[in-house]
Amino acid sequence: MGKVTGFLEIDRQVPKYQPASDRIRHFREFTLPMSDKEVEKQAARCMDCGVPYCHGPTGCPVHNQIPDWNDLVYNGNWDAAIRNLHSTNNFPEFTGRICPAPCEEACTLNLEDIPVAIKTVEQALADKAYETGYIRPYPPQVKTGKRVAIIGSGPAGMAAAQQLGRAGHEVHVYERESRPGGLMRYGIPDFKIEKHYIDRRVEQMQGEGVTFFCGVNVGVDRKVDELLAEYDAVLYCGGSETPRPAGIPGDDLEGVHDAMPYLVQQNKRVGGEDIASVAWPAAPILAGGQHVVVVGGGDTASDCVGTAFRQGAVRVTQLDIRPQPPEREDKLTVWPYWATKMRTSSSQAEGAEREFQVATLEFIGEEGQLTGVKCCEVDEKRKPVPGTEFVIRADLAFIAIGFAGPLEGGLVKELDGRMDIATDARRSRNVAANDRDYRTSVDGLWAAGDVRRGQSLVVWAIREGRQAARAIDEALMGSTLLPR
Questions:
Q1: Among candidates 60, 54, 38, 41, which has minimal Cα distance to 2?
Q2: E strands, 157-217, where?
């Protein structure tokens, strides 16, 4: 695949960023795209490795045929590469921007820390698809007469809707917020993915017959049992939005917030919307001129860091209870799986101060207002080390330690109270359904995405939406041509 000796002759190259001093002045994407010729050279590095773990179960969740489209790009056959990529991934412009690229971790060349720039090639292909007019509606030639309702328009709901619409079903998508996209629109900042990419896909799907009903909070504005009576199938793709409880004393002080209301507010500002949200109504949260502390070490915490810098924060400190990971993992122990190693996000590189192996003991304040965060070092069992306490000045603090299942109330409350829906054994109470047929314990109701799987990646949500669509199509029609 690619050029036989390409990996020996061509150095790995990925797109460069605008300087941090420039990019923190705006909320737009800041990646500087590579030319077609540069992308073709990177595709040429894909080696004939025998067993391509990049698109197996250890690499790409949607099983992108990465060596195939790398070879096509190397040979200048962009059209065929675009068709190949879209055969497995409905939205490569999303994953090409915000996926952490487990495929590159699983690349054989990652044994030498120089994996093929798979994510770069994927994004280039997705953007080229729009330039060439490939991304247009593909309505079904025959309608089945079946009607499907999808609750939630995040990546799982969107993927399922597109697949089912193309299979000939009448698909209605119900979204609680004012625009489609779920937390991909309202949780992920615009500097990682600008939202016109979502708008273009929504427009394409509308051309394929999918109807979006926004501002409809199922469980409040419309009851689930109404949808079950009206539609042949209902797919629940509500996401995982309940903040994981931190249990830190002082979290009721003014200035202490969960991460998601902060991110949702800023995304709504950028999108020209009212910052009030159905899920997170709150007073404006702004970091301009503030000392900010972010509790947590994941992607959501990093998004808070980048957003705070763009709002004009004086100082941003990120606290991670985990020990600082090694710069380089033991390849022979970990590869081809995702490795724990030192990673610095673009937001962290903009000037964040990072504290590792530190526990947040207490939020402290005066007259109800946050003034500092009391911390201490922890041992390998995450137990506080006596005598290591210290205080970080803070005017704002964001808790970003993950999510614990779907939001309580509304839809979940109705499912619990009236239908006794089965949930998994974890405290998160995700909706119970297997990853073969995606059926819940309620007849006529399927579930996919984070509401079933738990908090995860956009690429996993796309996979679950596609697989759930196949299961629903097969259940309604007796057979299906949709891929898993």
A1: 41
A2: 170-175, 211-214
